[in-house]
Amino acid sequence: MNILDKIVEKTKSRVEKLDTEILKNKAYNLEKGDFPFFRALSTKGIKIIAEIKKASPSKGLITEKFIPKDIAREYKKANVDCISVLTEPYYFQGDNSYVEIVKKESNKPVLRKDFIIDEAQIFEAKVIGADCILLICAILDEKKLKNFLNLAHSLGLNALVEAHEEKEVKIAVNSGAKIIGVNNRNLKNFEVDFSNSLNLRKLVPNDIIFVSESGIKNREDILILEKSNVNAVLIGETFMRASDKVFEIKKLRGEI
User: Fold this and answer.
1) CA torsion 15→18→23→24, rounded to 10°?
2) CA distance 252 to 23
């Protein structure tokens, strides 16, 4: 069983504990919102989605100093465009409470990054205050992906639809995704190939926001992606390991 399969199995045990009807009622009683995540990525220039994560299956513990409140404040100070928050507890040491903390400490749209396999998790994302959810093509068939996208949009949530290979990108496009992220990391073995985004960019129409994820480390990487008409980057480990996150973000933008 590969790592992704193991994560999905653990996720199933979490989903079993969720009360779908209670979450559904709470979610639909909240304001729908005006899709701030999509709007933040829609303006000119390459956008930065800065991630908050404590650990990962491939790297183990990424940072000893992990205080979500402080990280959110640094990201706000650096004026990142959006913030991604890991909530998967077993392999990434995430927690739903981090979304609420980040929403309180910053004015940035938040992506709830988890392994969504059930509609209850989408209702849950709305209830904890997320603006966007992650939908991974590798763990969802096209029918379920379309259904989850429609449900998210009905709640006022955007969805970042993640693909890793050509077949998945085509499924994401056909499903009606408004934001597609190409992961340079293979979730089955966690190997990273930065060129993956460059190779798959041509498959995504220009009216869909294209996000490059994983393996982006420096200003040179950003410039290469900009030339390929990439709209946004999602960066986690580089920022999480940086002692001065504001400085690191300014370097990536070419401001230093």
Assistant:
1) 60
2) 39
* Set 162, 168, 237, 248: catalytic member: 162
Q: Is-catalytic flag, 51?
A: yes
Residue 183 is among the residues annotated as catalytic for this protein? yes
Please provide residue 113's backbone torsions phi and psi, each rounded to the nearest 5 degrees. Answer: -100, 110
Residue in 184, 186, 197, 214 annotated catalytic:
214
> Which of the residues 24, 47, 53, 108 is marked catalytic?
53
Residue tagged active-site, from 88, 124, 168, 213: 213
Whole-prediction pTM value? 0.96
Instruction: Identify which of 138, 141, 228, 150 has the alpha carbon closest to the alpha carbon of residue 185.
Output: 138
Higher pLDDT, 59 or 125: 125
Q: Give tens-digit pLDDT for 232-249.
A: 999 999 999 999 999 999
Handedness of CA 127, 180, 51, 95 (dihedral sign): positive
Per-residue 3-state assignment (H helix, E strand, C coil) for 50-77: EEECCEECCCEECCCCCCHHHHHHHHHH
